[in-house]
Write a structure and sequence with these properties.
The chain is of the alpha+beta class. The protein has two helices and four strands, in the order E-H-E-E-H-E.
């Protein structure tokens, strides 16, 4: 298993409760596939997007530091693509 950093952007019009539920669901995908979320960072929060994505001009940024294997990456990518609340996501290997 390797260390990764995942950044995803949620729709800005989600209320606090729905946003937390989506974040928990995405973290659950990692846990269910043998991964571990080390840290969740919401400090970027709500930001203006550089260009509209799916007719949205603002997004809520979340960064996860995770440890996971290939199966968790594949499953996370598959499920996040179908989640209508997620505008974009990116997974990168974290080099220490």
């Amino acid at each position: 298993m390797r260390n990764y950093e995942i950044m995803y952007i949620l729709k800005a019009d989600l209320d606090e409760e729905t946003r937390k539920a989506v974040m928990d669901k995405l973290a659950g995908i990692i846990h269910d596939n043998g991964g571990k979320v080390e840290k969740t960072d919401e400090s970027m929060g709500l930001r203006e997007l550089a260009y509209p994505i799916k007719d949205q001009t603002k997004g809520y940024y979340v960064v996860l530091k995770v440890t996971m294997g290939n199966q968790a990456i594949s499953e996370f990518n598959r499920k996040v693509r179908h989640n209508q609340s997620v505008l974009r996501h990116l997974i990168v290997v974290e080099h220490k």
